[in-house]
Amino acid sequence: MRILLIGATGMVGSRVAAEARGRGHEVTGVTRSGAEGTAKAEAGDAAAVAALAKGHDAVVLAIAPPRDGSEAEGPLLAAGRGVLAGLRAAGVRRLVVVGGAGSLEAAPGVRLVDTPGFPDAYKAEALAHGALLDVIRAEAGDLDWTYISPAALIEPGERTGTFRLGGDQLLSDADGNSAISAEDYAIALVDELEKSEAVGRRITVAY
């Protein structure tokens, strides 16, 4: 499989690249800077995305909104819509999005981002990711998309290959912890690329 990976050098993107290449897939990495041998492009530039995506089997969007205190939602939605337009122009239908956990239901009808104690430092980013999910659900019906939310905590760790998959509800363990390593998240993402079992919906992965 030929995969275009937008955001290839981030914590999650770099692990997705390693996992996919380890399984024999061809990965074209894209970053804003063109660093580390990646192609240089802005995700919001539909023409640039289309030119890079042409000839690929799938696109993975693995970017985060700005974390410098500036407005988060606008740039992420512009990037998302640029990618959607770029896929259409390139004739590529498969899109997998590295999403956020904040929009998962922590209780019936209550998103994690809206629960008491959700860290203020991550609220803008969580809301932006949730807004991107809304845009994809509303505007990407002509594409084969999957949005993958991590657990509440995702960080570098072990590649165990043992985890659970869910839907729109936050997954926690018996002690109430919701976590996943970036390495195991990458396994779940590449599994979905290979199997396409969750097309047109959001899934989540956690221990």
UniProtKB/TrEMBL annotation:
Pfam families: NAD_binding_10 (PF13460). This is NAD(P)H-binding protein. Gene3D superfamilies: NAD(P)-binding Rossmann-like Domain. InterPro entries: NAD(P)-bd_dom, NAD(P)-bd_dom_sf, Polyketide_Oxido-like. It comes from Actinomadura litoris. PANTHER family: FLAVIN REDUCTASE (NADPH). Residues 7-194 form the NAD(P)-binding domain. One of its GO terms (molecular function) is oxidoreductase activity, acting on the CH-NH group of donors, NAD or NADP as acceptor. SUPFAM superfamilies: NAD(P)-binding Rossmann-fold domains. Signal peptide: none annotated.
